[in-house]
Design brief:
By secondary structure, the chain is α+β, with helices and mostly antiparallel strands. Helix content is about 15%, strand content about 35%. The chain has an eleven-stranded antiparallel sheet with strand order 1-3-4-5-2-8-11-10-9-7-6, with helices on both faces. Helix 2 packs antiparallel against helix 4. The chain is globular.
């Protein structure tokens, strides 16, 4: 999507998706704004949108509730995608007979400890340090793309004095992300927690231009965000096993209240040594 494209006044999918949840069936169309790699949906955004179909209220199943999404194939943009019931109360997203994403309920206890809170000024310094040195594999990504004026632009950098693989940044929530009722859908928290977990691994490989695709994400959310407010996003690289990269991320208020936490699995697709 062109970085100079007009910014919509609302998030157009949130109202549609939330109206349909609970029936475990429906249709989703991913607007081009919410892309990740070229031609496909942002992994966190589509995972969170599908997970919304697991709960009839759209607010989660109470304390300890979480959801997990498994991405099976790239999700195309601007075409109708079918939401269907899956085994054991889960849901799946299908297009033309191809399984794209599956989602099911999970337990927040399975996420383990989230990355620690980072003070607001430290998070700003971390992000500024990355912006000066980073090479971006997908600059048009809705979640973290530097070439987007209408994306989240959540691009964390290494925390000064912190352990290797701990990154942070701030996120000021744009008013265009709110739905018609003025609230921000929880599926957008999945986007906010998605890309930072990739950048946590990039921080452990400073001499490489890393590229990877999200394969699995589990999220527990205790609340949502408010348009115009600023938050702290922290991520931590947990393990690297061949092409598999595991990480955790967390979303905090500026005074350290945990709003949402996530674990993720990424699959490396390339890694090019820097000169």
């Amino acid at each position: 999507m062109d970085a100079t494209a007009h910014r919509p006044s609302t998030d157009p999918i949130s109202t549609t998706a939330n109206a349909a949840v609970g029936g475990a069936a429906g249709t989703v169309v991913v607007p081009a704004r919410f892309n990740g790699p070229p031609g496909s949906a942002n992994g966190g955004w589509i995972s969170g949108t599908l997970a919304g179909y697991l709960d009839g209220t759209g607010t989660g199943g109470g304390p300890g509730w979480a959801a997990e999404a498994v991405l099976r194939a790239p999700t195309p943009l601007e075409v109708p995608l079918a939401v269907e019931p899956a085994d054991e109360g889960g849901v799946r997203l299908v297009h033309g007979g191809t399984l794209l994403v599956e989602a099911h309920a999970a337990k927040s206890a399975d996420l383990g400890d989230p990355p620690p809170f980072v003070e607001l000024d430290e998070a700003r310094h971390a992000a500024a340090a990355l912006a000066a040195t980073s090479t971006h594999p997908f600059p048009e990504c809705f979640g973290c793309g530097t070439g987007r004026s209408d994306g989240l632009r959540i691009l964390p950098g290494p925390v000064a004095g912190g352990p290797s693989g701990l990154v942070a940044t701030t996120w000021t929530v744009d008013h265009s992300l709110a739905g018609a009722d003025g609230t921000v859908g929880r599926h957008l928290l999945w986007s906010a927690l998605d890309c930072p977990s990739f950048w946590a691994h990039q921080a452990t490989m400073p001499t490489e231009d890393l590229a990877a695709l999200l394969a699995r994400q589990t999220v527990a959310a205790a609340g949502t965000v408010t348009p115009g407010e600023t938050y702290v996003v922290v991520a931590r690289a947990d393990a690297a096993e061949g092409r598999k990269l595991r990480a955790s991320s967390a979303l905090y208020t500026v005074d350290g209240q945990l709003l949402a936490a996530s674990t993720s699995l990424w699959i490396r697709i390339q890694s090019v040594p820097r000169p």
